[in-house]
Amino acid sequence: MAAFDIVVIGAGPGGYPAAIRAAQLGASVALVEKEEVGGTCLNWGCIPTKTLIASSELFARIKSASSMGLHVDKASFDYGAMADRKDQVVGKLRNGVKQLLKANGVTVFQGTASFQSRHSIKVEPSGSGAEPVILTAGKTIISTGATSAMPGFLPRHERVVESRAFLGLRALPAKVLVLGGGIIGCEFACMLAQLGVQVTMVELLEDIVAVVDADVRRELRRYMEKTLGIRILTGVTLEDIKADDHGVQGRAGQEKLEADLLLVSLGRKPVTSSLKLENAGLTPNERGFLDVDAYGRTNVASIYAVGDVTGGPLLAHAATAQGLVAAENACGRYLHKNETLVPNCIFTTPEIGSVGLGEQEAQQQGRKIKTGKFSLTVLGKALAIGEPIGFVKWVADAETNQLLGAHAVGPHATDIIAEATLAIRSELTAADLAHTIHAHPTLAEAWMEAAHVLTGEPIHSAPPRKPAQ
Amino acid sequence: MVKAVIMPKLGQSEETVKIVRWRKQLGDTVAKGDILFEIETDKAVLEVESFYTGTLLKIVAGEGVTVPVQTTVAFVGDPGEPVPDVPLPAAAPKKAEAARPSAAPSSQAGSGIERKAPKASVTPAPSAVAAAPAAPAAVEPQLFRISPRAAKLARESVIDPTPIVGTGPNGRIVERDVKAYLEARGYASLRITPTAKQLAAREGIDLLSLEPKEDGSQIAVADIERLLAERPKPMTRMRQIIAERLTESYTHAPHFFVTVAVDVTELESLRAELKAAGTPYTLTDFIVKAAALALEQFPVVNGTSDGKSIRSRSKIHLGLAVALEQGLVVPVIRNANELTLAEIHARAQALTAKARAGQLTPAEMSGSTFTISNLGMMDVENFTAIINPGESAILAVSTGAKQPVVRDGQIVIRTIMKMTLSSDHRLIDGALAARFVNSIRKNLEEIKLWQRLT
């Protein structure tokens, strides 16, 4: 038996930073992980997918390099080598996290944690027949994350995979059917299409990536369909799904669809089944997630929860921020509230970055807003790098011009959203942003131009039309 | 044709009436039945309707002006019609006070304003003329002197410069004073987001009056909005009247309280029987009657005192407190002791409906000699009420609930309803209050009485 001030369950992007922060604050910290440190994000999510996407995007650009005056003969790829590179990147980052945990004096237990009581946690070591360890916890932070939902109507077959299993493939199929047009589905679809895979996507809702701004969605869909050649079927269900050793089949409406592989991206569900939550008096909500208050506390005062297991935006950076807040609150340093402004990044081609209030959301709330939009098709840097696609858009309060939301689609949209996030969190007005000097020529200039548009004084776009005299 | 709008005489006692708010502005079209303006009597705020259709051509008595009843306060007619000059009758006792809230250079303030009328000054309203120059005169003794540069710095820093001690000629505040003040008050360490600062400037909030955030973060829009939400706002006229009258009553009349528990088991079953037979009564109807009978028996309680003399009253008029969204009103059932239960029921229903619709006249709200406040439907065990001014006692009726009680040495379940009498001790002593409230209780429990009266 070992006693710790803080026990963190799950070493993903929510859990391991929480453990490090708590240790920095002088607490004795145990971190329990049943698989690999780094969690979904580092091992089977953000990092491996972005590594593969970097390869696929570069390949797509090489193929179109003649438009930039470059001639590359016979461009080809080796998916096995791409997957090896992905594993190297993941391995390097994973080792880095291990080193950091060690350097900060966090004790890592390899195994599956379950509650025996509020303050007692049993760890069953993974694999070997070693004895379970009982940890006594002053406070506990649950960061067990989420896993892909695989509803019961799907056949269980090696040709029916979710994102994690897909990342384990060493060769690419020729035809892929993507079920679910959410963020994960779209990212994979873009990557596969760029590598020459024939992709068909089926989405139940009326449009893909319903979470993002309608203008942004339109731009993405147009590019995916027109340029990447992805077939997108929306407002329809995939039925009669069958899988055998020759391929997968399904029916969307009247049409029969066939492919070599079915990639399932139907959302994520929380990982709580092994925790024995009831022994600690924890009650998940009707969707199985653990509700927390603004300070990260569950319904049990000594137990916090962060990241995907709490529902919310299911984003690694949100989990990390919540992990730090929970660790500081649990250590009693001072009481922090979770940040509510979370940027959302989607690594499709073109990329999407968004943060804060959306235009449609504002309309639903009946809030009076103004918008300022600037097209990247006329921005110097976007033209120079040969990617004149997309736009940036501000949403601001109609009365004060306070910046409330930002939406970008286009090259490096996921990088440039950082500036918008800082501006919104700092409650800057459109005028503040417009008066901030932006380096030229850069993609980030688009924010300044869009702010000028919002205040009605654009330099690099046509002035708002005046009513006829 | 131009029609004069006459201040109606709404009650017996009102000689003068104050106009609180004009709901129609000069030049507005007015239909017959439209609400023209709101008036305030010593009891309530009321709406006055137009008898005519046309355009509001002239307002003789503006907001905040008190006029005698039956005088002309405005004219309605066709646009462009000549309007007679009518002087405002000198009836307002508190003109200066009334005009102050709108003494700012606003065209709707004061009285006697005509749109596009170059001769408007021919009939100057005394109140408007009196009020305008009076306002700055009040500040005169301590003249606030500040240089333009200093004022600009203070404005840009979003601070209130009035506490700054000036070192310029004649104690004038100059720029260096503002700078020194900002430094002394630690202005440089103040952290605020740009939008929050802009909002503070717009709302006239002194940034130095803001408390720094506990966690050292920037003052944000939400902090300013919280401050704005906590700013005092004027109460509605109705609430102000309630505040004034009840404070006067509670501070002038020494209150004391006597509570009794009434067994309404049999009364409730009688009420259910009557309801089944098609004659529904409310419990309040019975309480009104029971109280009226008790007042006949104890006439002292029906009287009133100012602490020096006693005034007895031969009529028994019962007030019923009615809760509204914005406050409460007390319509009066006159001569309640002479009415049958059915008559009481009919009047109570009619008055309550009018009260909820905001249509009670001052006459319907005045002259009560005793008041009943029934919170029975609000699930309360017991409460005390404040005596209505001009009366000596009030009965607070709570919710009837099933309780175990002892009857003839046995524990039985009965429906018990508590009533608390608040009495003015200047007139009523404890023993009298006890006998009086028990008399109401006995009346309510006397089932034969009700069998006779219903």
Percentage of residues in DSSP E strands of chain A: 25-35%
Sheet of most strands of chain B = 7 strands, mixed
Whole-Å distance between the termini of chain A? 84 Å
Query: What structural class do the secondary elements of chain A suggest?
Result: alpha/beta
In total, how many beta strands of chain B?
Answer: 19
What is the CATH class of the largest domain in chain A? Answer: Alpha Beta
- Main β-sheet description of chain A: 5 strands, mixed, barrel
Q: What would CATH call the class of the largest domain in chain B?
A: Alpha Beta
Q: For the residues shown, what is the average pLDDT of chain A?
A: 94
The CATH architecture of the largest domain in chain A can be named as: 3-Layer(bba) Sandwich
What's the total helix number of chain A? 13
Largest interface, C-beta closer than 8 angstroms, per-chain residues: A-B, 10 and 11 residues
Q: Percent range for helical residues of chain B? A: 25-40%
Oligomer: heterodimer
The CATH topology of the largest domain in chain B is Chloramphenicol Acetyltransferase
Walk me through what this model shows.
The complex is a heterodimer of chains A (469) and B (454). Chain A folds into three domains: 2-148 and 269-330, 3-Layer(bba) Sandwich (FAD/NAD(P)-binding domain); 160-266, FAD/NAD(P)-binding domain (3-Layer(bba) Sandwich); 350-454, 2-Layer Sandwich (Enolase-like, domain 1). Chain A has 13 helices and 21 strands. In chain A, the strands form five sheets. In chain A, strands 1-2-3-4-5 form a five-stranded mixed beta barrel. Chain A has a five-stranded parallel β-sheet with strand order 7-14-8-9-10. In chain A, strands 17-18-21-20-19 form a five-stranded antiparallel β-sheet, sandwiched between helices. The mean pLDDT of chain A is 94. Chain A has helices spanning 15-24, 39-44, 46-63, 79-103, 163-167, 183-194, 214-227, 316-330, 359-365, 380-384, 413-425, 430-435, 445-454, and strands at 2-9, 29-33, 107-117, 120-125, 133-142, 146-148, 160-162, 175-179, 198-203, 231-234, 238-244, 247-252, 255-259, 261-264, 268-270, 303-305, 344-346, 351-356, 369-375, 391-397, 403-410. With 469 residues, chain A is an alpha/beta fold. Chain A starts with a strand and ends in a 15-residue tail after the last helix. Chain B folds into three domains: 3-137, OB fold (Dihydrolipoamide Acetyltransferase, E2P) (Beta Barrel), CATH 2.40.50; 148-229, no CATH class; 237-453, Chloramphenicol Acetyltransferase (2-Layer Sandwich). With 454 residues, chain B is α+β, with helices and mostly antiparallel strands. In chain B, a hairpin with a 4-residue loop joins strand 13 and strand 14 (328-329). In chain B, strands 9, 12, 15, 16, 17, 18 and 19 form a seven-stranded mixed β-sheet that branches. A four-stranded antiparallel β-sheet of chain B has the order 1-8-6-3, with no helix packed on it. Chain B starts with a strand and ends with a helix. Chain A binds chain B through residues 334, 336, 397, 400, 402, 426-429, 432, and chain B through 193-196, 198-199, 214-215, 218, 220-221.
